[in-house]
Design brief:
There is one protein chain. The longest helix has 25 residues, at 74-98. The chain is 52% helix and 12% strand. It is built from eight helices and five strands; from the N terminus they run E-H-E-H-H-E-H-H-E-H-H-E-H. The structure holds thymidine-5'-diphosphate. Thymidine-5'-diphosphate (TYD) binds at residues 15, 20, 42-43, 56, 81, 107, 111-112, 115-116, 162, 164.
Length: 215
């Protein structure tokens, strides 16, 4: 008998929207309901993902005075995110789905459509370089205001900020996410909006409710 392919779910939102907490909680809920689930995140733990994290934390710097918030060329970073994604799918995601295991990823293509479209100023190009990335069965977007996102993130990080974690930027990211969601929907992908301002338990319950139809 052929094994049924696993489901591929993605959590998305602003920095501080709660994607990491909710990905863990959703996975716990799925396991309680008898699913085999693999939890992952982007940037991935693979070689390109490690390089991306080094750029985000300024361990790798670009040419002094170059474009981009970190001095690292924004288009080069967009290509690294896209390359990490293809490697992540090939090495970690696709083999598990084929083996009947569900995969939940904390961020995926929609993050690039939101962040890199903004930093590169060229949404069609960002969409094109991500065109080969696997389409998730559902992308779950946690909606929080930019103010909530920045407040939560700042509280969690003891004052240390990554390059995208500044309030004015998060407001622009929120707008860019809306465009990205519209693009994915136009491509026929399923994107669900969930109120991320609620208490953690209520957010997980809302996510679970949207998910039952998938299994
Ligand atoms: P994040 O997911 O918040 O991880 P951590 O909690 O470990 O800091 O950080 C990843 C950052 O990278 C976040 O600011 C969003 C950004 N990002 C992109 O700009 N493009 C992408 O394609 C992805 C996956 C993330």
């Amino acid at each position: 008998m052929r094994r049924r392919r696993g489901r591929f779910l993605v959590l998305e939102g602003l920095d501080g929207a709660g994607t990491t907490t909710q990905a863990q909680r959703l996975v716990a809920w799925m396991r309680e309901h008898g699913r085999k689930v693999h939890l992952t995140a982007e940037p991935s733990g693979g070689p390109v993902g490690v390089m991306v994290r080094q750029v985000l934390t300024r361990r790798i710097a670009g040419v002094p005075g170059a474009r981009g918030a970190a001095g690292f060329d924004a288009a080069a970073l967009a290509l690294l995110f896209a390359a990490d994604r293809l490697d992540h799918v090939a090495v970690e995601i696709a083999p598990r789905l084929a083996a009947g295991v569900d995969v939940v990823s904390d961020r995926f293509t929609l993050s690039s459509l939101a962040y890199q479209s903004l930093t590169c100023g060229d949404a069609p190009w960002v969409e094109a370089i991500n065109g080969r990335a696997l389409a998730p069965d559902a992308t779950l977007f946690l909606e929080v205001s930019p103010a909530t996102a920045v407040r939560r993130r700042f509280a969690a990080s003891a004052g240390k900020r990554e390059i995208f974690e500044v309030p004015a930027f998060q407001r622009k990211v929120a707008r860019s996410y809306r465009n990205g969601i519209a693009r994915l929907r136009a491509l026929g992908q399923r994107v669900e909006l969930v109120d991320g301002e609620l208490a953690a338990e209520a957010v997980t319950a809302a996510l679970a409710e949207r998910m039952v139809t998938l299994f």
